[in-house]
Sequence to fold (236 residues):
Amino acid sequence: MTGAPAPGAYAVPQQAPLGLSKAIEPYREAPAGQRWTLQNPKLVRVDLGADGQPVLARQGSMVLYQGKVDFSYKGSGVVGRVVGNATGQEMQLMRCTGRGQVFLADNAAYLHPIELQGDAICVSAENVLAFDESLQYEVRRIEGHGIPGGALFTMQFQGTGQVIVKTHGVPVVLPVTPTTYADAQSVVAWSATAQVVLSSQVSLRRTAYPGHSGETINLQFRGAPGNFIVVQPYEI
Fold:
C-alpha cells in the first residue's frame, strides 16, 4: 500500500541501517587500567594480574573470561556458603585465581564497586556479587522471631580492596537518624558502626513470609552523624 499516510497517522521515519563497526562501537570493552572496571551498569570486569591477588565471587556469576584463570569452590563452611537474607537461598562463593580477565554479572542487576581503604561496611549477603580476597570479611546474623531460618545474614568487610555490590534498580543512600527504619528486603548496605535493631510493624502488613503472621520485618538503624544506609527500590 503506497501513498501519503492517512490524516492523523504517525509516519515512522526511515533510518539507514548502521554498518557493523558503527553498530558495535558503543558496546566495545572498556579499556584496562585498573583492577575492577565497570563495562556497563550491569557488567564488571576484574583483571587478575601479576599481584596474584585472588577474587571471591558469587558462584555462577562468571559470564566470560580470558587468559589462564582457575575457578574453585570456596567450600561449604559458614563463609563459603552464606544463607540469603529473606529467601533462605544459599550464596556459594567461587575463588578466581590466575592471570587474565573475568567478567561478572548476576541477572542484569545493577553493579556498584565500593573501594575500602581501611574502613568497613556491612552488606546484605544477597547483595554481594564479588570482592577482593585481601579484605577481611565475616558473616553476621541479625536474629529475630518470624524470619525464615531465624536470622538475616549480612557480610562485614574491612581493610583495603573492593566489594562489588548488586542491587535491584538504582539505589539511594540516606543518612542514619534515630528514626530510620527500612524493609529488611530493601536494605543493601550500611555503615559498619551503625547499630541495627529488628522491628516488626503489624499495621504495614506488606511482606508476609510463609508461616509468618503478616508483620513487616523492618530494621531500625541508629548511629552517629555520618553513618549511612543504602536501600534499593525492591521488595518481594
